[in-house]
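Input record, target 12 of the design panel.
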């Protein structure tokens, strides 16, 4: 059985937000990279299509009832999956709605949660990050391996978030963890690739080109710094440990899953892939 979506007069959690590089004073957002691809990113395009299709067909373009029901039915709920949350527990979703946990978990949620989102900004932000960084990673793997890599990173991200709060009753959704893995792979494959980045500092905004290792390294450190205090929070919020776990998985998995002959094409064309000796 899957959790039921019910009316509930309880305080909603904060919605998760997408993979933006942010803190209280500065925002960094990638606009594009200076790292052309050699092939059409078939896998990246298909993953984006799956996410958009889920948003339209399962989540009703974010309409209240359809969105809440999708989170209850297909979101990943650690406390239910591990039986660490009491059946009947109400997990607030906002707008007077909540998920009522059932005794048995939907194991498919380990995969399905990667293709669901909490709002338009969440979906668009995640898909933009996937588009900026995913095409070059797919270039080094091929579409089939990239799909497998993406799902493995998403599972590793989910595992990291579950370990951070095994009893959580709030549904976890979003492609952020899997895309974190893509970012980790990009940082290792193309550390010196220049990323055109929009930076907002208080009242000052500018665009600069930053090496991928600098931008993505900053993002990873920010997830760790934000994740530690998040361990003390019982409610919903940003899945920082999923982001960090996915990034580490991407760093580790990219070596066995890349295809050396495809990376050599980049090297021969003057690109600067990482050291995989």
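The sequence produced for target 12 reads:
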């Amino acid at each position: 059985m899957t959790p039921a979506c019910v009316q509930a007069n309880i305080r909603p959690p904060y919605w998760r937000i997408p993979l933006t590089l942010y803190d209280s004073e500065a925002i960094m957002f990638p606009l594009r990279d200076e790292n052309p691809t050699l092939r059409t990113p078939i896998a990246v395009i298909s993953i984006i299509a799956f996410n958009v299709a889920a948003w339209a067909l399962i989540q009703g373009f974010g309409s209240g009832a359809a969105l809440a029901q999708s989170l209850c039915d297909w979101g990943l709920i650690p406390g239910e999956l591990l039986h660490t949350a009491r059946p009947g527990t109400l997990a607030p979703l906002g707008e007077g709605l909540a998920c009522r946990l059932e005794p048995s978990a939907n194991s498919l949620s380990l995969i399905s949660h990667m293709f669901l989102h909490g709002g338009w900004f969440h979906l668009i932000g995640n898909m933009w990050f996937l588009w900026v960084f995913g095409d070059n990673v797919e270039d080094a793997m091929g579409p089939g391996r990239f799909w497998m890599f993406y799902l493995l990173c998403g599972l590793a991200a989910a595992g990291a978030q579950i370990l951070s709060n095994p009893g959580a009753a709030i549904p976890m959704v979003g492609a952020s963890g899997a895309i974190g893995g893509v970012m980790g792979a990009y940082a290792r494959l193309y550390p010196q690739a220049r990323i055109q980045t929009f930076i907002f500092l208080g009242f000052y905004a500018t665009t600069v080109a930053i090496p991928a290792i600098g931008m993505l390294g900053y993002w990873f450190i920010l997830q760790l710094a934000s994740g530690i205090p998040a361990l003390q929070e019982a409610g919903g919020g940003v899945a920082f440990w999923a982001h960090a776990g996915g990034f580490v998985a991407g760093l580790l998995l990219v070596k066995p899953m890349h295809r050396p002959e495809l990376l050599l094409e980049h090297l021969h064309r003057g690109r600067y892939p990482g050291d995989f000796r």
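The domain at 16-74+106-268 is CATH 1.20.1540.10 (Rhomboid-like fold).
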